[in-house]
Amino acid sequence: MREVLEYHQVEVAYQGRAVVHNVSFTLHAGEILGVVGQSGCGKSTLLRAAMGLLGPGGRVSQGEIRLEGEKLLERTPREMEQLRGAKLGLLMQNPQGVFCPVRTLGSQMVETLRAHQAVSKAQAREKALELMATLGLPDGARIWNSYPFQLSGGMLQRVAMALAMLLEPTVLLADEPTSALDCVVQKQVLMQLGKLREMYHTAMVVVSHDMGVVSTLADSVLVLHQGIPVEYGPAQEVLRHPQHPYTQQLLAASIGEVGV
Fold first, then answer.
1. Which end of the chain is more exposed for a tag (fewer CB within 10 A), N or C?
2. pLDDT digits (tens, 9 = 90+) for 169-215
């Protein structure tokens, strides 16, 4: 199967202090990798490293990150700007942070598509409404004309997912996509992520502290503890036969949530 994203001995540092150490994994087309660990262990930092969004004082201090064989760390800021959205999609924990509050959702979808593709507003609208319908979002025309504050948090997260997939990225990076949602909406979002994988053969990295989410979605699992990878392998193997005490501790705390 085609390799689409590779981390090779990646270390991330802020102000010269390493916070993520020696992370390696390979993600194939259509594969979902779950990255788990407690808050502050470096899960989200891994995603930001691929996106080139580590912020002030942050940098990849060792290792390589490759997207479809291309070294991301050698890309210019302008080149990374073009990759974000088109090749690397991002789904954030808080959808309110994705959208401008004073513009309609439709206008923001048009802007996203037209930043990367030569399409008319009508074509952009048609594609967005078609994707929303496929994802089971009710009344896409109403959503198109709505402002972010007019939708519930769960509905807005589902719209953010549609926005992230409009450009059919090679890899979708999902940072705690269900942690702020109730159980019913969480299940809807997980089902939609699975559906998107089937539709587009999109590879995904799903960051979560919830082992139940990971067991539902992931083909492979990477466990981080204090920025250090302690276990990595096929999901069924890691979840059923954890080798590291920290993985065993996470699973013990999630009894009843993990179906393996």
1. N
2. 999 999 988 876 777 778 888 888 988 899 899 999 999 888 888 99
Q: Return the DSSP state at 98.
A: T
Residue 19 burial by CB count (10 A; 0-12/13-18/19+): exposed, middle or buried? middle
* Residue 56 DSSP label: T
CA separation for the pair 148, 154 (Å, rounded): 11
Which tokens sit at 210? 């919830």
How far apart CA 181 and CA 203 sit, in angstroms, is 23
**11's tokens:** 């270390």
Both structure tokens of 147: 């402002």
DSSP 16: T
Give which of 254, 180, 164, 182 is closest to 216, Cα–Cα: 254
Rounded Cα distance between 203 and 193, Å, is: 10
pLDDT in tens, 203-247: 999 998 888 889 989 999 999 999 999 999 999 999 999 999 999
Residues 6+ apart with CB under 8 A from 64: 6, 7, 8, 9, 10, 71, 73
| pTM of the complete model | 0.91
Q: Which residues of 144-164 are buried (b: 16+ CB within 10 A; e: fewer)?
A: bebebeebeebbbbbbbbbbb
Q: What is the pairing mode between strands 58-67 and 32-36?
A: unpaired
d(Cα 157, Cα 192) in Å, to the nearest integer? 11
Q: Which residues fall within 8 angstroms of residue 185, CB to CB, at 6 or more apart?
A: 153, 154, 157, 158, 178
Contact yes or no for 108/100 (Cβ under 8 A): yes
226 in helix, strand or coil?
coil
Closest CA to 207 of 231, 175, 246: 175
